[in-house]
Design brief:
single chain; 219 residues; alpha+beta; 13 strands; 24% helix; globular; metal-binding; SCO family protein
Length: 219
């Protein structure tokens, strides 16, 4: 299941894709991009527009509406799971707890875990799941919504493969990636959520991302 990734085939060399500026690390920006020309003070300049996470709407474990606006000004990590998953999800949850414990006091950081089984994973089920993990407050949201919308945003925007598969353990197949998103809602990294070393790197990369200015240009 770890290998089911649509757009992150280059993640296997993600550590080599970062660039240094002096002693500071700059994370790459993933996804599509396009050049846009604009006139500034009579001169034509070319700006790069990067792929961003689009508008969305889900419900979290408290029954609150969570939209893209709820994450304005935040760095966040997104992943996909389901509460009855018998394989990689428990490992992912334990590893995500390390990220949560490191940044839960940071008011501008969030974790967004999307269930891919919204029929079973109701709001009360998600709340029970969060409570079992010891998660409280508003740093880590477990969200559910329409199945089609969840799958669509997973594959088209977060570039993570998910699907229902009756032959798989638990009935679903999904990639176990933690996707790092910056304040401008651009993807800045993807990490195998079952690999402690990559999760440790994610924690370090969040620190690097927090040190960046709100607007950063990556060549």
């Amino acid at each position: 299941m770890k290998k089911l990734v649509l757009g992150f085939l280059v993640v296997i060399v993600w550590s080599a894709c970062k660039s240094n500026s002096g002693n500071k690390m700059t994370l790459p920006i993933f996804g599509s991009r396009r050049a846009v020309s604009k006139v500034v003070d009579g001169k034509t300049e070319v700006d790069t527009i990067y792929q961003t996470i689009p508008k969305f709407g889900f419900i979290n474990q408290y029954g609150d509406s969570i939209t893209n606006k709820s994450l304005d000004g935040d760095i966040y990590v997104a992943d996909f799971f389901f509460t009855t998953c018998p394989s990689i999800c428990p490992i992912m949850a334990r590893n995500m707890l390390k990220v949560y414990d490191t940044y839960k006091s940071d008011g501008n950081f969030k974790i967004l875990s999307h269930t891919i089984d919204p029929k079973h994973d109701s709001v009360p089920v998600l709340k029970k799941y969060a409570d079992k993990l010891g998660v409280n407050g508003n740093t880590w949201w477990f969200v559910q919504g329409k199945k089609e919308e969840t799958y669509d945003i997973a594959e088209k925007n977060y570039l993570v493969a998910v699907k229902k598969d009756s032959t798989a353990a638990g009935g679903y197949v999904h990639a176990g990636y933690f996707v790092l998103v910056d304040k401008q809602k651009r993807i800045r990294g993807a990490y195998d959520g079952t690999d402690p070393k990559q999760v440790d790197q994610l924690i370090e990369d969040i620190k690097a991302l927090r040190a960046e200015p709100d607007e950063v240009i990556v060549q």
